Amino acid sequence: MRLTKQTLPKEYLIPAGIAYHLNGGSTRGKWTSQRVNKMLEVMKYQQRHYWQWEPTIQGQQFADFSSRDLKWSPEVINLILQQQPQQLRLAV
Questions:
Q1: Fewer Cβ close by (within 10 Å): the C or N end of the chain?
Q2: Which pairing describes strands 52-55 and 63-64: parallel, antiparallel, or unpaired?
Q3: How does pLDDT run along the chain (92 residues), one tens digit per residue?
C-alpha cells in the first residue's frame, strides 16, 4: 500500500503520528512509535544522541528539529513503506 500525496497529512508528524497513518488510521496495529523510530534509524535518517533522537545529514531534508520533539515530513510514510517487503506492504 502506498499513501498518495492527496491522503498524506500536511503537517510534520511525531513517530506516533506516522505509526497511526501506517496502521491505516488506527492506533492499533503492527506499527508503533518505537518501530517507526527503529525504521528511521535503519534507513539512516536519525540517530540517538544520548537519550534523544536527532536527524542525520540524510534525514535533515525530511525533519523538523526546531522543537524538542523531532518531527518528520509526511513523505517519510511512503519512504518507510518502500522499505518493507511486498507481503508486509499489502498487510498495512
A1: N
A2: unpaired
A3: 555 444 677 899 999 999 999 998 888 889 999 999 999 999 999 999 998 999 999 999 999 988 888 999 999 999 999 988 754 544 44
16: helix, strand or coil = helix
CA-CA distances (angstroms) from residue 57 to 39, 44, 47?
Answer: 16, 9, 10
All three cell numbers of 82? 518502500
Helix, strand, coil percentages, rounded to 5, for the chain: 40, 15, 45
**Residues pairing with 49 in the sheet:** 52
